[in-house]
Amino acid sequence: MLSEAERRTIAALEAGLLSDASFARMVLPVADRLRGLAAPVVVGVTAWSDAAGRAVEWAAAEAATQRCPLHVVHALRPSRGLDLAGLFPGFVEPPAPQVAGARALESAVARARSVHPALEVTAHLQPGNPGQVLLRHSRDARLLVLGHRSNGPSGAGQRRLPGSLAVRLTASARCPVAVVRAGSGALPPCPGNPHVVVGVDGARRSDAAVGFAFRAARQRGLGVTAVHAWTPDRPADLEAVTAPLITTEVGAHDLLHRSLARWRTEYPDVAVVPEVVRGDPTSALVESSVGAALVVVGTRGRGPARGAVFGSVSRAVVEGVAGAVAVVPAGTRGRAWTAARR
User: What pTM, to 2 d.p., does this model score?
Assistant: First the structure.
């Protein structure tokens, strides 16, 4: 991971070089590709558990598929400095944070190498808040992978986790984030799974997600199911009920077709099933996710300051889908998948 000083130096050099428009047009594609070649898959391990193990396996498979390194990261929270053994006689102190973190990383690296022995795996034990540590790593990653404690989606009988690490990082990370539940399906590549599902709303933020889904589908030898949900406007009077519904549905099909056209051209070998659904997008995506290898949704990528208010379809899908979900910020094309197409 680059230091802040190195990052500032690179930014200054880029600003100077890109002041020449012709030079910028020539250099930028090469720079994006080189940056993508070096970008790792990063998996966050807060503590060793079934969910963490599944996330590590999933991340290792993804890194092997993309032929890139895997970085396993554990953050050491600041110590509270309490002597619990002195306060409560008979209390058994848990392992020191450094020891517990080192054990978690050791288990994670061993698990990754057990599923992909040739994979380049490095462990990172760093002090700080887990969210902030992983956010910094996301700046140079092609994908950030996180485990989810729950084996199933949130429902009426389950408490949602509005402040969970996964939810916060999907809102603010600088790269796509995959949230993997302990009960997620087959690992990539996974020809037994029928499709990759992607939500399409026609906005720029979903374009990055659609491209990510096509790349992921091709790597897995799967097809793409592209879901667009629409809701008719409520007419002011009964006279306008029938015709607008027909017009709106036709428009929804047209929007989906236009949103997929570019990616169908770039990935002609990926089979596509377009689905136009009348209803809310969260329900449509959750229903389509049954049996899917991966569900992909886009987000505006509003950054850490405003990421706390992230609460749209992306968040609802992360909480509602039982399998793996990738949340793709707008504008992450180069690092996220260009290198994987070599």
Answer: 0.77
